[in-house]
Amino acid sequence: MAAGASSTASPLPAPRGGGAVVPRLPRAVLERFSLYLRELEALHARGVTTVSSQELGRTLGLTPAQVRKDLNAVGPLGARGVGYRVELVVGALRRAIGTDRTWTLALVGVGHLGSALVRHAGFREQGFYFTAIFDRLPELCGRSIDGLVVQHVDELVPTVRRLGIEIGIIAVPPEQAQPVAELLVAAGVKGILNFAPAALEVPPDVQVVNADLGFFLEQLTHHIVSMPRR
Amino acid sequence: MAAGASSTASPLPAPRGGGAVVPRLPRAVLERFSLYLRELEALHARGVTTVSSQELGRTLGLTPAQVRKDLNAVGPLGARGVGYRVELVVGALRRAIGTDRTWTLALVGVGHLGSALVRHAGFREQGFYFTAIFDRLPELCGRSIDGLVVQHVDELVPTVRRLGIEIGIIAVPPEQAQPVAELLVAAGVKGILNFAPAALEVPPDVQVVNADLGFFLEQLTHHIVSMPRR
DNA sequence: CATTGTGAACAGTTTCACAGCC
DNA sequence: GGCTGTGAAACTGTTCACAATG
Fold it and tell me: Of A110, A102, A165, nearest to A133 (Cα)?
């Protein structure tokens, strides 16, 4: 699925130059925007052109009122008595999220997780392109993964800067996460996706999203041990 | 780091039989609990025995008041004028999160991401043990990854049931996520960690946590394009 | 006397109900 | 008639200020 999967329907409006400043969304709304986008892209691929807040809410487990409030946050997109035009909403959501354009990625840390991320096809389909990959170990440098040659981290700053890469992905052991983050910041990235279980300190104009895998399992075990029913 | 890293200090209190019902925590609090736990474990490993809400808040980027309110949610753990005893709080957080015991995992989908997860050492250190792994492709079955033999999904239900596995991890393409979820439910798992970009429908007594990787990049791009500064 | 625990004020989020429009 | 957009109400989570206390 995701952006790449087309079938009966015509392709979605081509990504335009993306650059307009969009208003910051509340965290809770942003999380649901990803859900909406995913589902609407699937509907579009199936040739569906229109959907109501009720239908959309039912398949995603949300109330119709919430769907309407959420979508309304990026402007009045719906038609009363009719519903929402799928194509229109997909475009508006992409603009709000920032995926109405493509992005280039630098990976640091070519371990098990790092290599899996580079090979993960879903990223490309969503418009995210790995453009340079780095590791500290000399024996990994020169090897090629999915068409990209692993470079030594010593080359990170000049390479990332030269290629204008905007997003760095950290997949190194926790002790090395902070120094790597500082290299990425020095190289001028605008955002960092951090898979290491470590709290990064970066300047306020660099955005960080943490995706520590252990954290998801902890969420799950809490839900399990705190369940009322069973 | 995580639970396994010991150094100067004595090991933390051994996991006890875990089974008491704990009160459900608000999502936001639970997220911060993982942060606190990580940081407190690191402090313990460095031999620190006591910490104030101010120090803890500073290193994690939170206000002291928030730290106190959060920790107080599992009972009065601190000593006025002194601070919090690291060891005591680690124990209380683990009980609240559910990681005061070990858990067994079943992986479904031995692609790039799936194999990386199985080999990810951090899970074991946190008390999460892969116990069975499955794939649909016959050519993968019989191969062994990190000491575990890949079984065919047809054997999922009896195997997971026989081994009493409580958590299933889905790392298959999105179209197959729902059928796999249904197998895991039939096999009696209590929770599912879902890496596929698909909204799963499961009975209310089965917990689901979604960890779609594309979603994190979308969060990041929104933060970048909606930045006030720069 | 430094530091927690906590009620009360504040901010953010979700739900509700219905007016407005196609 | 069906469905969106939206103010107001209800709820949840965060910040503040200070009394309580080891």
Answer: A110
Tokens describing residue A151? 């470079």
Enclosing domain of residue A27? 2-97
Q: What is the pLDDT of residues B81-127, one digit of tens each?
A: 999 999 999 999 999 999 999 999 999 999 999 999 999 999 999 99
8 Å CB contact between B184 and B160: yes
Q: How far is CA B30 from CA A209, A219, B94, B151, in A?
A: 17, 7, 11, 35
pTM of the model: 0.90
**Residue contact B205–A213, C-beta within 8 A:** no
Domain boundary among A69, A97, A125: A97
Which phi and psi angles does B103 have, rounded to 5°? Answer: -135, 150
Q: Is B54 on the interface with A (CB under 8 A)?
A: no
* Residue A222 located in a structural domain: no
How close is the nearest chain A Cα to the Cα of B168, in Å?
A: 10
Tell me, what CATH number does B185's domain have?
Answer: 3.40.50.720
What crossing angle do the helices spanning A64-72 and A27-45 adopt, rounded to 10°?
100
